[in-house]
Amino acid sequence: MIVLILTLFLSICTLVLFVIGFFNFIVEPVYFYVFKKPAYVYFYPVLKKLSPELHEILRSEIPFYSKLATKKQQYFEHRVVEFLSTYQFHGKESLEITPYMRVKIASVYVMITFGMREYLTQTIDKIIIYPSSYYSTINDTFHNGEFNPRYKAVLFSWQHFMEGNELESDNLNLGIHEFAHVLHYNGMKKRNNSAAFFAQCYNQIRKDVKHPPNAKLLLDSGYFREYAFTNDFEFLAVIMEHFFETPDTFKQKFPELFRKVKQMINYTPPGSIYST
Questions:
Q1: Helix 193-210 and helix 174-189: axis angle, to 10°?
Q2: What are the DSSP E strand ranges found in 99-163?
Q3: Based on the domain organization, do 18 and 81 belong to the same domain?
Q4: CA 92 to chain centre
Q5: How far apart are alpha carbons 159 and 145 in whole angstroms?
Q6: CB–CB of 204/260 below 8 Å?
Q7: Are residues 60 and 173 in the same domain?
Q8: Helix (H) or strand (E) run with residue 89 in it
Q9: Structural domain count of the chain
């Protein structure tokens, strides 16, 4: 009897693994090719919650969260909890890491990945926070933030992180910028379908914006700061800042690019007149 039960159990496990593999490697890539989006995004049998004190930070200080429908607010909160339990936070120069800091930073990451099913990444394992600008040995200069793939770390100046969040329409947001670098690098690795979809969409964006007439139009518009044209990594980071901070202006000025960024992250910022 025990042998029969074990045999049945192993057969079920094998079938489940086959179905999962078939879905991940056959069904969903075909679905994305046809519909340009993942087959599904949210599935959480048990939704995790923050403490009442930390939840209040979402409610009162995260505009993106406040504009979501109730069910999606629950998904957002769940993902913040998962982010906080996945990545370590380290303070530098005697900076004490508070729960407030952790939730604010996690919320930015969850916001820009909210349309992705596989939103957590092994590209990073830690968040390092300095009180203000810090000296970086990478290029012997002072930085406000950076992504270091070698050490699997994202570094922030807390002062500049908060400034980027407080000014919501200047298209300068350090959190979005550095986490966009993480997504770009993660997409290059293509460890899962979400990463592969992201990379595929951005490769198409790259081809479009490198077409000389398009490149000239973007540069002459003055909408994207010149730093965006430094390289592909910086261009992606800057357009992500614009997408979340001034989505309506972005859509009006460059509707096709806006559409492709929306497709790349499978989301439209809530509250935008172009939300769907």
A1: 110
A2: 126-130, 134-136, 141-143, 145-148, 153-157
A3: no
A4: 24
A5: 10
A6: yes
A7: yes
A8: strand 88-91
A9: 2
Specify the pairing of strand 134-136 against strand 141-143: antiparallel
Range of the domain at 62: 52-265
Per-residue model confidence as pLDDT tens for the chain (276 residues): 666 665 665 556 565 444 455 556 677 777 776 767 788 899 999 999 999 999 999 999 999 999 999 999 999 999 999 999 999 999 999 999 999 999 999 999 999 999 999 999 999 999 999 999 998 877 778 999 999 999 999 999 999 999 998 877 899 999 999 999 999 999 998 878 899 999 999 999 999 999 999 999 999 999 999 999 999 999 999 999 999 999 999 999 999 999 999 999 998 766 654 444
- The CATH number of the domain where 88 resides is what? 1.10.472.150
271 located within any domain:
no
How far is 274 from 276, CA to CA, in rounded Å?
6
Task: Please report, to the nearest 10 degrees, the dihedral formed by the alpha carbons of residues 232, 234, 235, 241 taken in order.
Answer: 150
Is the full-model pTM beyond 0.85?
Answer: yes
Shared domain for 193 and 256, answered yes or no, is yes
Among residues 201, 193, 108, the alpha carbon closest in space to that of 154 is found at 108
117 and 20 assigned to the same domain: no
Q: Is residue 107 part of a domain?
A: yes
Based on the domain organization, do 97 and 196 belong to the same domain?
yes
160 located within any domain: yes
Residues 28 and 69 reside in one and the same domain: no
